[in-house]
Design brief:
mainly alpha, Growth Hormone, Chain: A, 21 helices
């Protein structure tokens, strides 16, 4: 039986009625409309996204969403694991093993992360979330094994770059993928997802604590290969964990492409099929039909979409996606502030991790001098940091409190705490204040990770997230240079700069034009 195509007037009436119709949301839910990001630029895509959102809300939260949340969370965990082991092992892998004084490992890690964010993130808007999501961690684990087995500084740095290149766009994909499947009432889980950060960091520090003190040289002199295997064991053990996670993604969980990516690339039939199959599998209702999507018209944003583009055609599509991110004054303001925020937190987090102990030592603080104490304290600080995203997610349930306020709260509170570091003199004070600072930095950082893809339209979500991550990685590239040329200084300036920057980006959150808490994402 054929379905009669509605007229444009009838379609507009249908669209308005859909917005007012009850769904699986609670009666007091006011999230009926999508963020007005590119709605006026592509009415057809906005209408299709509206119908997809209604379908997701109608289906509700299923075991599939739970599995997806944990898979994306494992991606967060793996990212933080691999990112932190370079810093945790640098003293023994770079300084002692290869007799380097410049923190070249940190610099090369950020070089890899920078280009990885661009390459993997941009490609995800071309080839889809699924392929990049499935293979990024597999390549990361394989390159990590090779980095741990390196026999020269040159090979170590090459594999370090490749490890972080594969890892670079993973975080943007994790949160993007989960966001595009979540019903509206569960979007707060994107903020909660950052809890997995702490899991990965804690596991990495625990393994470093287990291997470094017992299997490492005590100095540069006479640092033989057989006496300095601890850093290699840290790489092998963490790479093994990431490999297991990547195998779960590939073989034990069948992940489907996100419907929002599909409709933004003129693949409406696949989007409907995926949602209908999801509803059927979990005995849920899904009334979305292909006829409804077709009635919305042809999308304009990706009118140059090609299923199998050449290199030249891919470059044209990438430029088109970037152009969309700066297509009017409102989105220019939004994306500029997001990129500045990511750059700022990159400076803050890098300076915090590199300058803190040097500053404390220069001012006579006794924060623990043994390797055992250093790694023990790192485990404690990272273990408690998981409460930061929980606090952030809980705050979103307070009436009138949205993502922007939570970021402001996290940034300003972190600034106050970091300024207090100038008063630390004992190990107990250091453990207490470092734990608290990790918590509130993660209130800001975790919310920013969730906010970024929420404030972007699906057609350019991975590209926009990648630009933001690239700014963060570029800031990280500057940190080891700053640290190297300032590490002998007893000035408190780096600590004050660290606190001031996160305070400023926290206040900038209030100037962001979009509030995802008040609307559904495109």
């Amino acid at each position: 039986m054929t379905t009669q195509q509605p007229t444009e007037k009838a379609l507009d009436t249908l669209f308005i009625e859909e917005a007012d119709a009850p769904s699986s949301l609670s009666d007091n839910d006011s999230h009926n409309e999508e963020l007005n990001y590119l709605k006026d630029d592509d009415i057809a895509l906005s209408k299709k996204t509206h119908l997809i959102n209604n379908a997701l809300n109608e289906i509700g939260f299923t075991p599939y969403h739970l599995y997806l949340m944990f898979l994306a969370g494992f991606g967060y965990s793996a990212d933080s694991q691999i990112a932190i082991i370079q810093g945790a092992t640098q003293k023994y892998a770079i300084y002692y093993q290869y007799n380097y004084s410049f923190p070249i490992g940190t610099l090369m890690s950020y070089v890899g992360l920078f280009f990885g964010a661009i390459i993997i993130g941009f490609s995800a808007d071309l080839i889809g979330r699924k392929t990049a999501f499935n293979y990024s961690l597999l390549l990361t684990s394989l390159f990590s094994f090779l980095a741990g087995g390196s026999s020269s500084i040159g090979m170590y740095l090459v594999w370090l770059i490749m490890t972080n290149l594969a890892l670079g766009g993973n975080l943007a994909l994790d949160v993007t993928l989960l966001l595009e499947y979540l019903p509206t009432n569960y979007q707060y889980l994107n903020t909660f997802l950052a809890c997995f950060w702490a899991v990965g960091q804690t596991v990495a520090e625990l393994l470093a604590w287990a291997f470094i003190p017992n299997y490492s040289c005590s100095g540069k002199l006479d640092c033989d290969f057989k006496d300095n295997r601890g850093w290699r064991y840290v790489y092998y053990s963490n790479a093994s964990i990431v490999l297991i996670v990547s195998m779960m993604r590939l073989f034990f969980f069948k992940f489907e492409e996100t419907p929002k990516f599909l409709i933004s690339n003129k693949r409406d039939a696949e989007a409907v099929e995926i949602l209908q199959n999801l509803a059927l599998k979990y005995n849920r209702k899904c009334s979305l039909t292909l006829e409804q999507l077709n009635a919305c018209g042809e999308i304009q944003i990706n009118d140059n979409y090609l299923a199998n583009p050449t290199a030249k055609e891919s470059w044209i599509q990438i430029k088109h996606h970037v152009k969309l991110l700066f297509s009017n004054k409102t989105v220019i303001r939004s994306n500029s502030l997001i990129i500045i925020s990511w750059f700022g937190i990159g400076i803050t987090y890098g300076i915090y991790n590199n300058f803190l102990y040097a500053f404390l030592a220069a001012h006579g603080a006794d924060t623990g001098t043994t390797t055992f104490q250093i790694y023990r304290d790192a485990v404690i600080g990272n273990a408690v940091s998981f409460t930061g995203p929980i606090i952030a997610a809980a705050m979103l349930f307070i009436p009138g409190v949205g993502r922007r306020f939570v970021m402001c709260f996290g940034g300003v509170t972190s600034m106050i705490i970091l300024m207090c570091y100038t008063t630390i003199r004992t190990e107990a004070e250091n453990i207490a204040l470092s734990s608290i600072s990790y918590i509130f930095i993660n209130v800001y950082y975790g919310t920013l990770y969730a906010y970024t893809p929420e404030a972007l339209p699906t057609a350019t979500r991975a590209t926009g997230s990648s630009l933001a991550l690239s700014a963060n990685r570029f800031a990280g590239m500057l940190v080891p240079v700053i640290y190297y040329y300032s590490s002998n200084s007893s000035s408190a300036a780096p600590i004050y700069v660290c606190g001031a920057v996160i305070g400023v980006v926290g206040l900038l959150a209030l100037a962001l034009p979009f509030e995802p808490s008040d609307a559904r994402t495109l």
